[in-house]
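Case 217 in the screening queue. Each case pairs one protein sequence with one candidate compound; here the compound is S-adenosylmethionine. For every case the pipeline is the same: read the inputs, emit a complex structure as tokens, and attach any notable structural observations.

Predict complex for case 217.
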Amino acid sequence: MTEPSYLSATRAAYDIVAVDYAELLRTELAAKPLDRAMLATFAELVEATGTGPVADLGCGPGRVTAHLDALGLSAFGVDLSPEMVVVARRDHPDLRFDEGSMTALDLADGVLAGIVAWYSIIHTPPERLPVVFAEFHRVLAPGGHLLLAFQVGDERRHFEQAYGHAVSLDAYRLPPDWVEELLSQAGFAVHARLLREPERAEKNQQAYLMARKQGQS
Ligand SMILES: C[S@@+](CC[C@H](N)C(=O)[O-])C[C@H]1O[C@@H](n2cnc3c(N)ncnc32)[C@H](O)[C@@H]1O
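Case 217 output:
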């Protein structure tokens, strides 16, 4: 089956920028206490509901996967871009990174205790997000936790340049209320939302949504 063109375009763009993206973002979390607070809360919630693997979906160079590992979670990463996976394995040789798409994960039903999608749903055309959220729901255990990060807005941005390279890449700013509604339709209960104002080079508010797959844990 041929894949949708947005997946091929996203993969191609991140293959080009992988090495420089990793370099530029390497220490970014250290300067973002609110981002770390959401990841720490997520880790605490996952640990409180038992053990189990946590997937960092759209992990890029694995900086968030490594952060989750340092917080004590059994974390692994999945990314669409083979070059990102190469960089993630290079930078974090003790962690597991797989190539794959969050639209059709190579994971059995209900195997994950948690999912983090950190600025990685932003390249999925909004009308296709229900497919992604259905896949998140499928692979999470009942009661499993989900943490999303994305830029707030309601528009498509097209980039011809990124991280010092020529690319052709679309990214979508999303309205948090609408994302929450989609999550709820997919069987998640959203229980926390952080909207933070832009910092440094950011142009938009940033949204962090924490949700739980409905059902018993
Ligand atoms: C902005 S980067 C964020 C990377 C990482 N989460 C971080 O915060 O450093 C977006 C990442 O999502 C990945 N991605 C986009 N769509 C994806 C999909 N359908 N499945 C898996 N990964 C995807 C891209 O390849 C890219 O590495």
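Case 217 observations:
- Helices lie at 5-25, 33-48, 63-70, 82-91, 129-139, 176-185.
- The beta strands are 53-57, 74-79, 96-99, 112-118, 140-151, 155-162, 165-173, 188-196, 206-213.
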